[in-house]
Amino acid sequence: MSAFRTASGGRVDRARRLRFTFDGRAWEGLAGDTLASALLANGVHLVGRSFKYHRPRGILTAGAEEPNALVTVRRDAARETPNLKATQVELYDGLVAESQNRWPSLGFDVGRVNDLLSPLFPAGFYYKTFMWPRSAWARLYEPVIRRAAGLGRAPEAPDPDRYAQRHAHCDVLVVGAGPAGIAAARAAADAGACVILCDEQSEPGGALLDGAPAQIDGLAAGDWLARAVAALAADPKVRMLARTTAFGYFPHNHLGLVERCTDHIAAPAADSVRERLWQVRAREVVLAAGAIEQPLVFPGNDRPGVMLAGAARSYLKRYGVRAGTRAVLVTATDAAYQAALDLHAAGVAIAAIADLRPAAAGVWVEAARRAGIEVLAGAAIGGTRGGRRVSGVTISGRTIACDLVLMSGGYAPSVHLFSQSRGRLTWSDSMRCFVPSQSAERERSAGACRGVYGLAAALADGAAAGLAAARACGFTGIERGYAVAGESATHQAPGATPPAVADRGKAFVDFQNDVTIRDLVLAAQEGFRSIEHVKRYTTVGMATDQGKTSNLNALGLVAARLGKPVPDVGHTTFRMPYTPVTFGALAGAARGELFDPVRTTPMHEVAVARGAVFEDVGQWKRARYFPRAGEDMHAAVARECLAVRNACGVFDASTLGKIAVVGPDAAEFLNRLYVNDFAGLGVGRCRYGVLLREDGFVYDDGVIARLAADRFHVTTTTGGAARVLAMMEDYRQTEWPGLAVWLTSTTEQWAVIAVQGPLARRVIEPLAAGIDLAPSALPHMAVAHGRIAGAPAMLFRVSFTGELGYEINVPAARGVAVWEAVCAAGRAHGITPYGTETMHVLRAEKGYIIVGQETDGTAVPDDVGLAWAIGRKKPDFVGKRSIERAGIRRAGRKQLVGLRTRDPKIVLEEGAQLADRPGIPAPMKPVGHVTSSYASAVLGHSIALAMIAGGRARIGQTLFVRVPGGDVEAKVTIPVFYDPEGARLHA
Amino acid sequence: MIVGGGGHGLGTAYYLAAEHGLTNIAVVEKGWIGGGNTGRNTTIIRSNYLFDESIAIYEHALKLWEGLSQALNYNVMYSPRGVMMLAHSVHDTQMLKRIMHADRANGVDNEWLTPEEAKAYCPPLEIGTHLRYPVLGATLQRRGGTARHDAVAWGYARAADALGVDILENCEVTGIRRGAGGAVEALETTRGLIRTPRVGVVAAGNSSVVMGLAGVRLPLESFPLQALVSEPVKPVFPCVVMSNAIHAYISQSDKGELVIGAGTDAYNSYTQRGALHVDLHTLEAICELFPAFRRLRMLRNWGGIVDVTVDRSPIVGKTPVPGLYLNCGWGTGGFKATPGSAHVFAWTMAKDEPHPYAAPFSLERFRDGAMIDEAAAAGVSH
């Protein structure tokens, strides 16, 4: 057993010894230890280096508020976690931990030179220097500063661990399982409420884990705790979550909790979940988050061996560790005396208690003196001595040798979650801290987090809050109390005390960020009056502990400096998270295929089997082309294009958005929405529809078929399906609620098989039943119902290729069978499956636009040659007024045209910019840009579509496409390259 | 009078004093200077926009960034670390290449990287095909980068103060008093009446509220936009990476924190906080693209209120009210524009006519339809 471990007591398991290493050196601890308690048990106090001055640092606290003792815990190359607080790292056998921010070693850190040079580096020094010469910041100074900054190293390998997420609902969520939280959970559950009780520590109990010398309901506090916890655990209405931090409080009682499931286990199962995010929606919330002891600010208050009094007591009572052999307590409150008395009783020599209060007196002082401890009232603390460990402290001019300095500036209620919820805080003069005053949510604070201290008071407060929460949920419970005996005499107000210290030496306010009193004074001198400015200028409160041990002291100091009362200075905003939360827990299982749903068409597997290359279009996987052996994309697309132009091709168009618009007012609805006239569209006919935004710019397009007088089948672009439906619903519900029309997304109900090419009719004819395919019966832009290959089908005669074409719509489940039947029927005609790339070439040859490629949110119908689609007799449609505005009618707008490169082999890059003269040096104003560009196999030359200022007036002119290495000459043409008369379409 | 003590407002005051010789200038700020979006953004600076008008004003800003520390004698830590924008689909590729070509024609640096080149420039980036949306390529603007946001507000404030500008914090405008002819006469504030013939409103997310005091309705929507940082780590991320398609925006600060931009909430709001699911979505994207960062931890999250126009471009110029000028609508991308915005707005106020770079961004464009729709090129999906 190590020298600093007590012979008995505490909550560690003395029978289970655990080995661990710190910076490569092997040590031993006990089950139940944290890394911090295990190090202290071995007499190790130097555990880290500070951020800026690289000063040696020890362990300040025993909990989540730790600013100094940051370590990296390494399980393997891919499981390395930086910046963990040693006070929270639970020990397991084989744990490997390393200190951070030091080089070459923790004991000898070259960065320490910053400490000696610190007069050069006060707060904000970097704003005033490093500016000359101009390029030196980014090239010289910044890289040096960056290397010096940062804490641990980021892992380099992908994290293999699993993370999970859960949603949960409850009547009452209780945050914090100390006495107040346990009493609240008990009261709420007894009243019948469904309760979640979470606590960030490895076991419930809070302050009771540090061994309260009292009896509750006739039992020793520890025994009462065990019973209370067992009863809650056995209650089916109560869910207890240990190692679970409530980190965020969002509107409407939505809280984020993160549960650490395996970090305390030596060898977690391979499939286990490392962390779990809980999103809890609670009807009522009870915050019982406790309070955080505050340091005193005096020169050298950061040396290893200077520790919060409550932390030293926690190490002794919970972990059986004496944090030193000879201690001095520096305190400004009664609350810390218990620590000195307990350490004294455990054999730690208490050299003195330096009480900063001028009139220190009362039961605690008497108790200390009875124990033979010297109490120095009205003490002035001059500073500490020592290197990697404190060796002495100067009190009122007298130096007292010691290896442990306990300090206490009182407690600050943990109001973080309360404040996150937008509850209003108020300053308590008596306790010198902020306490909750007015809740913004259905929330109550109980116990120390609202300044109610002492065991009996906390139990009563918690029980009352739990009962009130349950009653607010509609349960009727009865009040019950707890009989507490033997509790130590009531503390005087244990709130934080403003430090009144001479301005010499380094007196740290924010330990991790190395912010001293001088830095705060400097900020005030430089005119920073707002506490938010002081925070940003000095970085106080911005370290990984987010000011849990520094904000209140900083506030007191700034207020004193400005000569204002603290509440007039105010406090900085409390933000989520309460403590840092692993990215992985927030990202959950979303990675790879699970990152975003993959949508596939009914015929997807057929395309996979045929060796298709896919592209992502929104969430969809679409076959881009079907290469044969030895073909690249260019060769495959050329072959597919020629097949469609000369014979027949088959294309999976299932991803097109489809919306059923049904009702007596369906035609009126579409008439108001789209630019086209839909009132006059006959049943069985289709029309190409153009949809504008309110500002008149093209939003979507697609073929719309009238299936019956009161029924339309609307198709949208693949990417536009959801937003068009949303826009339709928006108008239906808010603008035209009087219209009787219903909207249903049918995108995934239909498999859509496009059969395109001069032989398309011959392919489909033998498969069609009950449909007359004769051009007179089913002309271009008509739709018929019947059966195709035995499946009930809607057969559209539509074309996005410029060829005779059909789109077969069959129920999704029949898609594969019909596809195979089409392919079989087409084999004799040379049917060729083609993909989206071929579809793009074919439509570009015909000058058909793609919304989002030819248009970019600034094109009105006329710009892209769609003015013909506008129903002239319609009184109104969405965007009508907008496209009549002055800016829309002015000359020189970009218009859709075609481009033919002088060299037919050059395929322009899409997005390339155009000039009307060659060789204009940048910067210049382009006249337009290439929107689509392909090699056209059927034409034997490249083609491009472009949006060009005043483009239609430029047809026949030569423009110059700006590409690296020179300009490419191109002639402006009409945007239709193939069959401009449309004869093939109507074949 | 300038209403709004953010970077744009303080900068406007500075340029009015420094370049236009105005002497009786004050900035009123309802909170503390730089406490709005200036202090809440992810500090990305770039000028790789799509439309000529946007490129002109953002490039004007970028050129000012390059000498801002020296001009203000305050280190704003402009760091041209390179801004990389990722393409994950054929459509992304088309759009990013169009932007690249447009930038280069306008004399703005922008280049195309293959996935391997992108990985070489940013080693933590995952480019494997196992990604749900693999990286197909990227544009890189090498002059793009980051700056220290607070320093921008403080630097302008200090320089303006030195030129005699009054900066009044905790001074909220409660009314805009207009004379018989409709022109501005005075501002009513929580600290009293201030008579003035010229008012520039630079109030970002609260622009609609302030302009409402003068009876002017704006084509703006205000949304909460969130950002977050990780705990500090040693240098691991050398540049800025943006993925518009999967919503990831990330860089590393000088202090070592990974600075990550999240999206806007769907609903209008003036509360400076957003919903949790927006952050979750952001970190899903970050962890997908940078899987080694999964074990890092979110240290701090916050929200700002962005004022968004229908075409995602700002409004800079005159208003129907004589003497009242407006600079707003920077949406999710205002920080990078700060010096340029302030510079042309000061010019506009001093000369009572729009600076040539500001002219296209008039309020009238919404009436006339001369939109500059940067939605496709904007950093955040709306």
Question: What can you tell me about this protein's structure?
Answer:
The complex is a heterodimer of chains A (987) and B (382). Chain A has 987 residues and is of the alpha+beta class. Chain A has 24 helices and 52 strands. Chain A is 22% helix and 29% strand. In chain A, the strands form 13 sheets. In chain A, strands 8, 9, 12, 13, 14, 15 and 28 form a seven-stranded mixed sheet that branches. A seven-stranded mixed sheet of chain A has the order 42-43-44-45-41-35-46. A six-stranded antiparallel barrel of chain A has the order 47-50-49-48-51-52. In chain A, helix 18 crosses helix 23. Chain A starts with 12 loop residues before the first strand and ends in a 14-residue tail after the last strand. Chain B has 382 residues and is an alpha/beta fold. Chain B has two domains: 2-75 and 148-219 and 310-378, FAD/NAD(P)-binding domain (3-Layer(bba) Sandwich), CATH 3.50.50; 83-143 and 221-309, D-Amino Acid Oxidase, Chain A, domain 2 (2-Layer Sandwich). In chain B, the strands form four sheets. Chain B has an eight-stranded mixed sheet. In chain B, helix 1 (7-20) runs parallel beside helix 6 (149-162) and helix 2 (52-66) crosses helix 9 (338-351). The model of chain B is unreliable at 378-382 (pLDDT under 50). At the A-B interface, strand 6, helix 3, helix 4, helix 13 and strand 32 of A face helix 4, helix 6, helix 8, strand 17 and helix 10 of B.
List keywords for this structure.
heterodimer, A: 987 residues, alpha+beta, FAD/NAD(P)-binding domain, 7-stranded mixed sheet, B: 382 residues, alpha/beta, D-Amino Acid Oxidase, Chain A, domain 2, 2 domains, 8-stranded mixed sheet, 6-stranded mixed sheet, 19 strands
Tally the helices of chain B: what do you get? 10
Q: Might you state the CATH topology name of the largest domain in chain B? A: FAD/NAD(P)-binding domain
Low-confidence parts of chain B: 378-382
Q: How do the strands line up in the largest sheet of chain B?
A: 5-6-4-14-15-16-13-17
